[in-house]
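Example record

The entry below shows one chain as it appears in the dataset: sequence first, then structure tokens.
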Amino acid sequence: MSDVAADGEPMARAMALMTRFTTDITACVRNALGPELTANRTVQVVITIGRQPGATPGTVSQQLGVSRSQLSQVLHRLRSMGLVRSVRDPRDRRSLALWLTPEGDRRFAALEVGLQAWYVDRRDLILAMLRLFGETAEPRAEQQRRTALDTTLRLSAAGSDYVRAASERAAAAGVSDVNERLALGLLYAEGSMRPVQLGEALHMRSSGVAGLLNRLQEAGLIRRLDAPPVADRRATVVVLSDSGNELAVALMRLFAERADAFSGALRLAADVATNEGVA
């Protein structure tokens, strides 16, 4: 596990980049499977059935850690969308097998292709994040390379675990939005940033950045300071308050505790991005 005190700046950068990276992967998955699939659990069920055609509800329920009643509700929605079908086992009428419909199969195939291209397009970013963890994309000893989908599930598991812990810690300080947590990490790494720089880093418009900074300031986590004029215009820089710095360090500790999981998933991503993984 990385030491936050010794590696604060690279760990803060890794935390901000990794949070954005996993958020963007989620968007990629939903774009491929369809905008109507907004719930993570629904996406997970489609992927599980796509990877294991003919799986029973009991198998899917056990693998995803959900109750049979919860799974039944998800399956009802997926059937109404025309993405999943249930088939009775002719040898045991009490047993059901779950399959994707032709439309479900089409979307699942599009997901695998889309993810492969997504990783290849972000090869340089993946390698840069590995360096922040103090690692390089050396050839690995495993005989079986992972697919883009395997890699995504591995990243999703690591990301979900961190997000749960970070959300609980941040909520206690009045922070509920992922971009607010990202801003804290960026400010810790940079020391100070102008609002326009934060907007560029977070892919947000100026109005969105202004609202985000207002919320963080109201929570006592940042300060706005006057900076030397830029191009004859008054400039403002944003810095963390003592409370903001304390929260940023706490979030980094949570992230550092999961550094091995993230770096392991990134090594798989590097395989896929360099076409060593299997599409």
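Notes for this example: Confidence is low (pLDDT under 50) at residues 1-6. The radius of gyration is 22 Å.
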